[in-house]
Each structure stands twice: as structure tokens, then as C-alpha cells.
Amino acid sequence: LAVGLAACGSDDSSSSETTAQAVSCTKQDLKTIASGKLTVGTDKPAYPPYFVDDDPSNGQGFESAVAYAIAKQLGFSKDEVDWTVVPFNSSYAPGEKKFDFDVNQISITPQREKVVDFSSPYYTAPQAVLALKGTPAASATSLADLRDAKIGVQIGTTSLSDVKTVIRPTQQPQVFNDSNDTVRALKNKSVDAIVVDAPTAIYLRDFEVKDSVVVGKFAGTGTPWGVVMQKDSTLISCVNQAIDKLRKSGELATITNQWMGPYTKAP
Fold it and tell me: Most buried residue among 23, 56, 188, 209 by CB atoms closer than 10 A?
């Protein structure tokens, strides 16, 4: 029976398994943009708790630490990692990439997977609502209470799609080009509330937006984040192996608890 089943296997399956087994994750065999270097992309500004002091290269912050941990698994030392600025929307846009991989709270979605490769998830974050104290949005106790609110959100994010499908506001959300413009709109009271991932909302409440409140996070939802690579990247298998090793060893959990622990508590 075993022989018969093996004979019935498709050629594609056998080919894929052979290719996967043939992939070498030894540093000298990795095809990177710059020889002997690993080029990692992220947006600017790079906010805490993902990066500290707007400097991804210092190793401080959740995604900086994750990137260096992956690099170490691949055989690259810290001084062999080069950071490059990649606007959020460009990271998962079609076309050739100027990075080996990108880390920037990028949610894995079927539409994005059509044009880029994603690693296995390294974090899952729910969306949350941030509003100014004393406003009707700040006192909302249900999604229905937010439907008449003027909501701001960054273009191209899963926050935007969640606003439309989960909150379903009566007026179109105001869409902004980047996180700076989104936060500025809330500070200027151009919008009643903004929707971002929960850790970002908590950071903004505590450090950036005075007299703001995290109204709540979306219950029962969570968006997995993945490392982004160019479509059909030769690094995908090795990056996945690196993340799996970090997860199994407990190092990923340690990094997550260290940097994200204080930014996960929202109503």
C-alpha cells in the first residue's frame, strides 16, 4: 500500500520536496542583494515599541530585535546587517525589491501574498481605537457607538479594511498617506478617532497624543505579521527556518515579552 501511494504522488509534490531539501541555508550559499551582507528594510519614522530612537540599527525595539535574531540564525553578525528605508506601501507592492527582507508590522493577507512572499508569522496583533478624551468616540462602549464617528486611518493598512468591515462607519474613513499624518489628524481634531494596531495605540496614548484614550481593541480578531520578501525569494525557506528555530527555542517569546509586554493591555 505504501509503495502504491508513493507511486500515486504528483510530480509537483515530489519536485517541491526535492527543492526544499536542496536549499542550503549556509551563509555563503544565500543569495543576498549585497555579498556578505543582509539588507533589511523598514519605514521611517520607526516608532516604539518596534524600534527605539527612530534607529533600527541599534537593536532596540521588538522588530529590530527580531530582525537581528533572524540575521544571526542565517549567519550574519550585527555589523553585517544594513538597514534601508522602505515606505510601508512600497514594501508589499509588486516589483523588484531593494531589500532581502522587510519588517514593519506588515499583515499577511491573501492579496499581498499574490505579489510578495511572507515568512511564517512572528507576531499577531489586534486592531484598536484611539480617541481624544472627552469626545463621544472616547466614551464608546460598542462598535455601534463608533459608526457615526469620523475615523482616520493610514492608507494600505489592514486597519483600513477592518474599519470598513468591522466598524462599518456611516461616513467614509479619512485616509492618510502615512502614520505621521494619521496621528497629526487626531491631534488637530480633524478626526474623532484613529484605528491602528493595539501596541501602537497604547504607545501613542502614553507618549505621543496628549489626553488620548485607547477606547478598545477589536475582540476576537488578530492580524498575523510576517517578514516580507520579494516574490519567489530564494531566502523564504531559510527565513522560515530561522523563525521556527527562534520560536522553538523560546527566544522569540523572550523578545516579544521584553518589548511588547507593556503594549498589549487594552480594554
Answer: 56
Q: How many CA atoms lie within 13 A of 179 on its CB side?
A: 21
Compute how many other C-beta atoms are within 10 angstroms of the C-beta atom of residue 57.
15
The answer to whether the beta carbons of residues 63 and 104 sit under 8 Å apart is: yes
Are 246 and 119 within 8 A, CB to CB? no
pTM of the complete model beyond 0.85: no
pLDDT at residue 4 above 50? no
Q: Running DSSP on this structure, what letter comes out for residue 56? A: G
Of 189, 190, 148, 193, give the one whose Cα is nearest residue 168: 148
* Residue 158's pLDDT band (cuts 50, 70, 90): confident
Residue 252, pLDDT above cutoff 90: yes
Please provide the distance, in angstroms rounded to a whole number, between the alpha carbons at the two ends of the chain.
55
Contact status, residue 152 vs residue 173, Cβ threshold 8 Å: yes
Instruction: Calculate ∠ Cα 127-71-197, nearest 5°.
Output: 5
Distances (CA, A) of 72 to 187, 238, 253: 40, 12, 16
Nearest to 156 by CA among 102, 105, 202, 103: 105
Write down the residue that cell numbers 479594511 correspond to.
161
Q: Which three cell numbers stand for residue 68?
A: 537581528
261, amino acid identity: G
Over the stretch 14-25, which tens digit does the pLDDT of each residue have? 333 334 446 799
Using CB atoms within 10 Å of the CB of residue 45, give its burial: 0 to 12 exposed, 13 to 18 middle, 19+ buried: exposed
pLDDT tens-digit readout, 118-135: 999 999 988 999 999 999
d(CA 197, CA 264): 10
**For residues 233 and 224, what is the distance between their CA atoms, to the nearest angstrom?**
20
